[in-house]
Amino acid sequence: MRPEDLILVSVDDHVVEPPDVFEKHLPAKYRDIAPRVEHRADGTDAWKFLDIHIPNVGLNAVTGRPPEEFGMDPTSFDELRKGTYDVKERVLDMSANGLLGSLNFPSLPGFAGRLFGQLEDKDVALALNRAYNDWHILEWCGYAPERFIPLAVPPIWDPDAIAAEVHRVAKMGCHAITFPENPVPLGLPSLHTDHWDPVWQACSDEGTVVCMHIGSSGKLAITAPDAPIDVLINLQPMNIVQAAADVLFSPMIRKFPDVTIALSEGGIGWIPYFLERIDHSYKVHKAWTFADFGDKLPSQVFMERMILCFIEDDFGARQAREIGTDRICIETDYPHSDAVWPNAPERMTEAFAPTDLTDDEINQITHLNAMKFFQYDPFKIRPREKCTAGALRAEAKGHDISIVAKGRRVERDAPTKVAVFGAT
Questions:
Q1: Does a structural domain hold residue 424?
Q2: In what order do the strands lie in the sheet with 45-49?
Q3: Which has the closest alpha carbon to 57: 338, 406, 411?
Q4: Cα(176)–Cα(208) distance, integer angstroms
Q5: What residue numbers bound the domain in which 21 lies?
Q6: Distance (Å, rounded) from C-alpha 173 to C-alpha 9?
Q7: How many domains is the chain built from?
Q8: Which of 413, 307, 419, 424 is nearest to 368 (CA)?
Q9: Do residues 181 and 173 make contact, with C-beta atoms less than 8 angstroms apart?
Q10: Phi, psi (5° rounding) for residue 389?
């Protein structure tokens, strides 16, 4: 398939929230408490919430800048590409990249929504959480509903409140929710308790996908406190491998057979070994561990319940048929440092070139699976022939996609945990 004929839907991108997030949807009595952007003396911008300052870490939004300017130093809005925080510009950036649809994870509240939970008054926390979701669904995604898949942030401190929010946003057309890949580092009960049952039941009722993004617990795999950042970057996929095992052997898998989990930004190249390993271990050890998958193997249950997602994973693409083309979705990770922009069609074509995948199988991976899993149908609004990479790029002709150096400041000290973008 030619690059221009691809239809691309990414199930993992990110938004850098603009300063006016809470202006329209938060009740007036709470606006003095809401996070606000402050321009600091050092030239950076940061969100101020309670006594917390939350900078926009450089690697969180480096699309459009040369790799020499990547880093952990905080930034200002002036240094960011407008498409990171301006939805009109985001749609143009998507079109220039040949990308039809995009699901956007949050930055400010953290992938698991724990920022708001730091308020002692949980009524106020819930108001902030709902206001954020309303902004995301009605304004960000609502600007071009054929271009975005809505994603809700959970009031993570209360499973009943999460369940209520799942039902509320489903009425607004949102059928995806973020959730920590491991609640324990957040001081919350594990996946092996019944604490989260109201959440799973609500997601089952609404057909809502549970998106577990790497690092959404605020913790990634690392070997030692003084290990270089390269170690953490390269071990990131191990975080989702841990999550996959945790979810698969949790009671939720048996109790709520209709709940689907997206292993966001986890890659797929590790899947064949993982499936072989879990089946071997199950056969050898189930007599004393009492693991029970009924008349199925763990690998079969895994492939029935998980959505598998990759950004750039050429080995995984070559093994896609063996892994299962009906479970794989693509990601572009805009505007993070791993973003595939503005060359997503070419990069996807390159990844599929060594394979003998049919056009139908490629279409599954590039858009049909995302449409099915996330209840997203852009073709109701936009004719299919206008959804191809070539058609979208024609609409964005003249849009500036050049790489622009902003001039890097001196690197500032920052705790290692800020490498978990959007999670801290």
A1: no
A2: 36-39, 45-49, 52-55
A3: 411
A4: 5
A5: 3-419
A6: 17
A7: 1
A8: 307
A9: no
A10: -60, -40
Residues 250, 197: contact at Cβ < 8 Å? no
Distance CA 93, CA 102 (A): 11
Residue 142 belongs to a domain: yes
381 in a domain, yes or no?
A: yes
Q: Can you read off the two tokens belonging to residue 423?
A: 């999670």
- Contact (Cβ atoms closer than 8 angstroms) between residue 148 and residue 141: yes
What are the tokens at 381?
């609004």
Task: Note the pLDDT tens digit of each residue in 247-292.
Answer: 999 999 999 999 999 999 999 999 999 999 999 999 999 999 999 9
Question: What gap in Å lies between CA 139 and CA 313, rounded to an integer?
Answer: 33
User: What are the pLDDT digits (tens) for 7-54?
Assistant: 999 999 999 999 999 999 999 999 999 999 999 888 889 999 988 888
What does the alpha-carbon distance between residue 8 and residue 376 come to, in Å, rounded to a whole number? 13
CATH of the domain at 27: 3.20.20.140
Query: For the chain, how many residues are written?
Result: 424
C-alpha 404/C-alpha 422 separation (Å) is 24
Q: Strand, coil or helix: what is 134?
A: helix
CB 62 within 8 A of CB 336: yes
Residue 226 lies in a domain: yes
- Three-class secondary structure assignment of 224-271: CCCCCHHHHHHHHHHHHHHHHHHHHCCHHHHHCCCCCEEEECCCCCCH
